[in-house]
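Readers of this paper often ask what the protein records in our data store actually look like. Below, we set out a record of this kind in full and without editing:
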Amino acid sequence: MIVIRGVVLNVELAKTPSDQERGLSGRESMSPDRGMLFVFQRESSWGFWMKGMRFSLDIIWFDSNRKVIFIEENLPPCSPQYCPVYIPTASSMFVLEVNAGFVQAHGVSFGDTFNFLV
């Protein structure tokens, strides 16, 4: 579990390359109190796409200090003709996928941080 902006999220961790490639693709929906946290071994410009997704997401990129460095909101699933890759403008080590609207609903912005709950 993590907490961001006072909101507790049950997150599924995507640590292996296969988990990271699969992400949330193929799922019908996700509960509002859930998310997927991608944990990378090093900071880089990790790109994400919405291939195989069935619902829209907000994606939040964090640096190694767990500070928000980039946000993309209300990303729709890919269509057969169009599937962009979303790339942050700074290097990240953690990436959080949450339901579309989460960022706006909770006022998440650059510089915010998340913490792990034990």
Q: What stands out?
A: The helical segments are 17-22, 102-106. The chain has a mean pLDDT of 96. Residues 2-112 form a domain with the Jelly Rolls fold (CATH 2.60.120.1140). The first helix runs from residue 17 to 22.
